Amino acid sequence: MNYKTIINIVGTALIILSIFMLLSVFVSILNHSSDTFALGLSFFLTLFSGTVMLSITKQYTHEELMYREAFMTVTLTWIVITFFGCLPYIFTGSVVSFTDAFFESMSGFTTTGASIFMDVEKLPAGLLFWRSMTQWIGGMGIIVFALAILPIMGTGGMQLFKAEVPGITVDKLRPSIIDTAKALWFIYIGITGIIVVLYYFGGMDIYDAVCHAFTTISTGGFSTKNASIAHFNNPLLDYISSLGMFLGGINFALYFYLLKGNIRKFFKNAEFRFYCCIITITVILLTIDLWLYVYSSFSDSLRYAIFQVVSMMTTTGYATANYLNWSAFSQLILLIIMFFGGMTGSTGGGIKHVRIYLMIKQIYREFYQLIHPRAVLVLKLDEKILTKELLGSIWGFVFLAIFVCIIASIAMTSTGVDLITSVSTVISTMNNVGPAMGEAGPVSNYSSIPIAGKWILIFCMLVGRLEYYTVLILFTPAFWKK
């Protein structure tokens, strides 16, 4: 294991993180906020630590990175940036314990949106901006950002990219992985800017527009308001937010093809059509249910159904209504779609639509072959033939996700948390959604979860964001053997 190269990359990530932190210092100064010193101190410690790591490992910059080192690097980087990302919460005195600070930071970087704060509106402006920015950084991934701006990380870059942006396949949009990372971040920044403009002209001030744009495109869900998007009580903002979350749930590679003029490849993509189909069906079901049992107005039913379905489906976690007051049918639907998540290559969490789509196709093939045993059927995805190994890996992934969910839920109940809260918080954090059921519903938070429970959920957030294998492979004996 090439530990010195790993430390070198972690140090690079910390320096990049400190630059983002510096932006929060400027926001604090502009708003005459009380957290300027705390953010400044956090910036200095992060920059200093990253510089020290780089200085003691500078001769290892160009050494080749293998897959084992890539898994270790990505996992360690996310843990380290989470630690330094929680410093502003500690130095401002906004939290009472390190566990709460680490929980909030991990929730930010993994774009989960689960919060321990009971009153976010009391937090100073600079800290709230940093809180939103952690989700924006985590949405695309700091390793991908480092690849985009630092050519020296090209060695082993594909391994790092695959470890941080796992999925069925990793599309190289450009000849080099560095150019691919640049293209992804260019698209990401561009869509963020569009959402800022829409929010601003929709009724938000520029500060709220920027903060909410960060957490919308990243499908993170942190808000500067206690009531989330519901605070603004503006149907137009609800629809703008729904559009932004929907865009965040789309594979960013498709935007690249769209910009290149390949409109057909965008709209003919099987996963995109399945994504739109599931959202449409779910919205129709919830709209009917809400119109029958909750709201007297069809327009209100449609508005809240669209928003909450897109929020849960893309694992953003914004809320405009307390869905715990909805029928059991609607609540169950929302709980189920937490598993779906966004598309592969999106900022959304969850199992991803392409895996569910292919599992449905495979089940159909099994039914068909029971009727026609001699038939030879080949599964395809966008005209690409899928191998048995790939299909097997999908079922393995789903089994692993269910297995982790069961074990984590059992562990949560052992901390004294009730069954509904235990299971729903595990599902929510594993899929990086945020709001859950029970004590952690849309109008509540995670502050009542015991310390042991919070660390279980922290682990769930990390493994969910990196799609299980990147983290869990570190716990296998084979990983540590030469």
Keywords:
single chain, 482 residues, mainly alpha, two-stranded antiparallel sheet, globular
Which regions contain 5 or more consecutive residues with pLDDT less than 50?
Answer: 152-156
Order of helices and strands: HHHHHHHHHHHHHHHHHEEHHHHH
| Rg of Cα set | 22 Å
Number of strands: 2
* Total of DSSP H or I helical runs spanning 4+ residues: 22
Alpha-beta classification: mainly alpha
Task: Give average pLDDT, whole number.
Answer: 88
Helix content: 55-70%
Give an overview in words.
Helix content is 65%, strand content 1%. It has a two-stranded antiparallel sheet. With 482 residues, it is an all-alpha fold.
Gist of the model:
The protein has 482 residues and is mostly helical.
Sequence-ordered SSE layout with sheet pairings:
Elements: H1 3-30, H2 36-55, H3 67-85, H4 87-91, H5 98-109, H6 125-140, H7 142-149, H8 157-164, H9 177-202, H10 206-217, H11 235-248, H12 252-259, H13 263-267, H14 270-293, H15 298-313, H16 328-337, H17 353-371, E1 380-381, E2 384-385, H18 388-413, H19 419-430, H20 451-465, H21 469-472, H22 477-480
Antiparallel strand pairs: 1-2
Helix pairs in contact: 1-2, 1-3, 1-6, 3-5, 3-8, 5-6, 5-20, 6-10, 7-9, 9-10, 9-11, 9-12, 11-15, 14-15, 17-18, 18-19, 18-20, 19-20
